[in-house]
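Subject: Glutamyl-Q tRNA(Asp) ligase

B.,
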Amino acid sequence: MAGRFAPTPSGRMHLGNAFAMLAAWLSARSRHEPIYLRIEDIDTPRVLPGADRMIMDDLTWLGLDWDGEPVYQSARQAVYDAVFERLRSLDGDALLYPCFCSRAEIRAASAPQEGDGFLVYPGTCRRLRDEDRDEVERRLAAGRRHSWRLAVPGAQEPSAFVAFDDLVYGAQSFNVGRELGDVILRRSDGLYAYQFVVTVDDLLMGVSDVVRGRDLLRSTALQIWLRGQMLRTGLGSHNLPAADPQYAHVPLLDNAAGVRLAKRERSLDLGRLREAGVRPDQVIGYCAWHMGLCEGVLERPEAMSAQQALNLFSWRKVRRHAGDVVVPGNIVEVLRAL
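Prediction pasted inline below.
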């Protein structure tokens, strides 16, 4: 098996990123398996120059090492192009279709999923493809701006249901037709979308241990379904662990107002914490405590190295502490007191 760090270089890592990175590292190292570093810089407009170096510096500061050279998605365009063409030709071009809808049109025709505002595409251009292929060809010939969408099974089709077992949150089941819909694989500006590139990379890099935040539970169902289509094209092998990874989604860290930490909140990024005199063992100790690793060992959080956290690690402990963590406003003082 093999794990991976997969940061987006859109800013400095924050405490929540460190929490998830530590969990990924502990999972891989507890089995004496490799963990790779993949810089997810495919969305070039969001990339902050130099953020990749800051991420690597922060990982090293925390004591979280990786195997091999970092892999940059921006250098894998030819790989993505080849896989995209494989999918386009699958089932007589039924799997992908061009979408000419604007964002405003999609918002107007869609109903958000309850609770999170996620918009499921209403299928406008899929119906156009099925009912009037000549019109689709005319629009393409005229150079109409378009993205490319993945045609997932309809909500009533048995193949729309995807189930998997998460090491933290247990049995999961999603209807990809109802809960995710026909997601974009290539944007109208030509850039490939997250769901596509992460599935390609995990499969081809041999990643079989996927650890990340619980906000991506639903995306996992889509990626499992999409991975199945890629395997059908002959990409990868059904017999390798990466064809059927194990998943662990970890709790999120929220700020004092209950809002998930984001890179735009620089007050909680590792650069600010380091400038304030916070040590790496204090960050590791805080994260390990909130993962539940100190259960039955310590009565309060204490500073510790990544190796010391590794000696305490088990997914069974994390499973018993699956609630999100609220980071107090005085986190610098909390950390420095460890």
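Confidence is low (pLDDT under 50) at residues 111-115.

T.
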